[in-house]
Amino acid sequence: MAVVLGNLALLLDLTSARTVTTDRKSRPLAIDVVLNLPKRDPHFFQASLSNKSQIDFSDGENRPNRVVARGKANSKVKAVAQEQAERRATAQLMFDLGQKAYGRGMYGRSIEFLEGALTIIPRPTLFGGEIQIWLAMAYEANNRHKDCIALYQQLEKKHPSVSIRRQAAELRYILQAPKIKITQEEMVTIPLIGSSYDSYAATWSDKNKDKDQRIGSTTNQLPSSRDFLGDFLVWRPPVGLEKNRAFWVALTLWFGLVGAAILLQR
Q: Signal peptide span per the entry (predicted)?
């Protein structure tokens, strides 16, 4: 009996497995996938290879052209940079000349140089802001007060640099600050010492002048040693002495006495 039941169970298992496998979908194998792939067209493959070779050949031909174009672009960039450097150097020179003219009081010339520098340097830059600050000061020194205030206000509102805006605002505030009115009582009076000083100076100069005149008169009255010695060495006989007989007699007598004395001494 047990054997019969075992056989029946085995038969049931086999029938159930078959039904399960029949119900499942058939899975495609790898060889079926390979065989079902679309076939390549040989003409299309050759055309793609020829197109690729043509593209590579055109790239090889255009490469020198690209190198030449790149060199031209670099030369243009260098030329532009050199031109900008020269323009900035010119603007710096004009700015320096404007500062020197302002320091020497030549405000008109200073305005000309600074305005010329602004034609080269853009106004929104930091260097352009410095030039405009100096230009506003030159306007104020040249009695162009309205132009100075307008330029300060423009810098204060529109310039991108914070330092330039702050500097313009401070200078404008100084110019537009209300002037303090001082009464005559609040003013400090300094006594003038001109009258007393002038009188003292006049008396002192007069005294010294009189003293110098007295010293000069006394020195002129006294004969100098040089004049006395000259008069002694150069003897000038009086006029008409050669006609005076008494003079000649006295002279002859004097020579005779001198000769006798010499003989007696021998």
A: 1-17
Residue 133 lies in a domain: yes
159 vs 168: CA distance, rounded Å: 10
Least confident span in 62-71, 127-136, 160-169: 62-71
pLDDT for 80 equals 84
What is the C-alpha separation between 166 and 168, in angstroms, rounded? 5
Q: How far apart are the first and last CA of the chain?
A: 217
Look at the chain and report how many structural domains it folds into. Answer: 1
Spatial distance between the Cα atoms of 159 and 149, rounded to a whole number of angstroms: 15
For residue 142 the two structure tokens come to: 């040249």
The answer to the question of residue 56 being in a domain is no
Residue 263 lies in a domain: no
In a domain, 4, yes or no: no
pLDDT of residue 256: 82
* Contacts of residue 88, Cβ cutoff 8 Å, sequence gap at least 6: 120, 121
CATH code where residue 101 lies: 1.25.40.10
Q: pLDDT, tens digit, for every residue of 22-39?
A: 444 455 555 554 455 555
How many other C-beta atoms lie within 10 A of the C-beta of residue 92? 15
Give the domain extent around 148: 83-176
pLDDT tens across 59-94, in order?
555 666 666 667 777 788 888 888 888 999 999 999
Task: Write down the residue that tokens 């302002």 correspond to.
Answer: 102
Burial 170-193 (b: 16+ CB within 10 A, else e): ebbeeeeeeeeeeeeeeeeeeeee
